[in-house]
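Quick entry between incubations.
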Amino acid sequence: MTKSMKRRKERSRYLTILFIFILCLFENLAFAGEPLSFYVLNQRSVTLTAEYWNPILRYVSTRSNVPLRLKIGRTAPETTRMTVEEGNAAFAYTNQLFTPARDRLEWRAIARPVGKHIHGAIVVREDSRLTILAQLSNKEVGFPSPEAFVGYWLPMDALLKAGIRVTPLFGGNQEGVMGQLKTGRIAAAGVNAEIMADYATREKLRYHTIWKSEAYLNLPIMAHPRVSRNTVKAVREAFIQMARDEEGKKILQAAANLIGANGETGFVAADDQKYDNYRRFYRGTVLPIGTE
Amino acid sequence: MTMPGLTARLSLRSRLLLGIVAVLSAVGLLTVVFMTIKESREYQGHIKQEMDAMLTVLEQELKREVIIGDFATIEEILRQRVQCDIVDAVAWENKGMSPMVARNDHSAAHRPKWFARLINLAHPNVSRPLVVGGTDYGRMTVSFTSVPHENRLWQSVLLTLGMLLIMLVLMVFLLIRIMQVGLAPLVRLEKSAWQIGAGDFNVRVAECPGDPPEMRLTVDAFNRMTASIETLLLKREQAEQALQQVNDQLEQKVLERTRSLEAANKKLATLSSTDGLTGIANRRRFDEVLLNEWRRAQRTRQPLALLMIDVDFFKNYNDLYGHRLGDDCLCKIAGILQGGSRRSSDLSARYGGEEFAIIAADTDAANALQLARSIHASIESLNEPHAGSPSGKVTVSIGVATMIPESTQQPGVLIEMADRALYDAKNRGRNRVCYFEQRGAPALPDEDKTG
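Done. Structure below.
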């Protein structure tokens, strides 16, 4: 290598370092001025999701001094894809980043809504002769949707692992499939066990649970590793403080009223390790999603 | 031309047609105007509802896409919304970006501009912010256009007017047909009236089964009237003929009476101027003729002659032969006097008793004497016996006088002169002719001279 070549190589190295520095500078500036993307997994309609999350994000933005912008895709897979693929995704409310491939992106749970754990379950009507999973073989079993974690992935994974083949029928949402069970349209249903309990009480439906998953925490708010620690901290604090602040309480109550949720509202700090059962599920599932 | 004059020139058919066409046209046009106004007002209310509904739907559609940020879908939604013909443009704008606008380029105006100005429909723009959960996602704006509704209203007006026109044409045809059938009896009536006016009272208006009842009654009444007139005229003609006969008979009677009256009058006149015994002119007639001839002689300055004749010794004749023969004798002498006159204009008259006179116009003294001698000879040649006369037969004495009367003289002068000549003839022994000679008159034979 000649001297001139060495000099040229050093010059290009300096230029590269300078370029990266400038990029980082612009990125920080961007974080300071431009709103950060806050992705929300589709659990409800896009509009209802926006009506639910926009007041909360506006509150958090004000309190944390970190401008946040709601981002959502047309469907849950699309939102997940956008979350993963978009270059400046900062925060996400999702439980779909624990798959092995996505877990390598190092998104970390920073907060979660208060509330009980959730369970996946397969239920039948009380008058049904079905009592064990094996009896569901080659029968039509209802599920909320192909993207439902506790309503489809957990029970279907259990069925597949038990070697039971069923014909899935999707009811659109949790209560849709519960309605089909109540009318006898389907023999059994994969559901969120907590929602099923509330539904049965309200509709006076007597049912049996023939399978139930382990307990999972509800969806967490996750932060991308590129977001600075201070920013994450500010945002998490703002979320946690909402339930302790009058204005935050009002917003939370209004949001709860919007979706008809009862019980405790607000957010608490999330321990990322408590979501390891999600990671374990994705690693061990026989469903195609686990290999993504 | 004034309206009454114009109206007077229009036939019943034209009046009916014009009246009905005018009324239907007015009602139709009023209906069109009323319906257009009503539809315009309804549209104003409808467009408000449409605007609200459109904005609500658009808001729901756009909300999801602006939240997602799918601009292609937003554009698609805007394009879909602008497909609605009452939408002129749909736009969505957000801070820091150019507005996304979709325009309607298929709402062409088919209605005339004056129609649009007349109905004056609004073209409102409405705008609404897109806020989801308190976050502003920009503003959507919809520009509405009333052109499609104006087009629809215009089409509706044209359709209504077309239907009105068709209705009018059908109505006119129907009316013409009805009037043609309904007024046909009137045409027949008119034709018959002209024939009747020309004197043909036998004519009757034919009745057709299709005639309206009113017309049948009218035709029937007309025919009855014509029959009555014909009967009356027949009676009148018969009466006139009878009257004519009566008139003719009356005229004939009047004629006959007139003739008989004329005959009676003539007879009476003859009787009043004729002597009853002898049949020649009497003294009254003598006086009339003498006065007329006297005046004529005065005018013409021609001589007038008068002969006074007296039967000699006639008292003796009556005494000897009786009055009946005396009368016969007088009649014979009168016959000679009547036959002895020279001309038809000479007048022989019985002057009174046994005295006669002859008036001869345009007769001078010589001719008068010749006439007197001729008469004297004729009477003498009768040889009528008269025992009381010295000559043994009936004779006469004649006094002759002639003169051209002056205007101041009266006929009595001539009578007096003839009387004096007669007196002179009697004094000289009767049975002779004497002439009264005036001074300066032509000389006459001696035995005949008097004066």
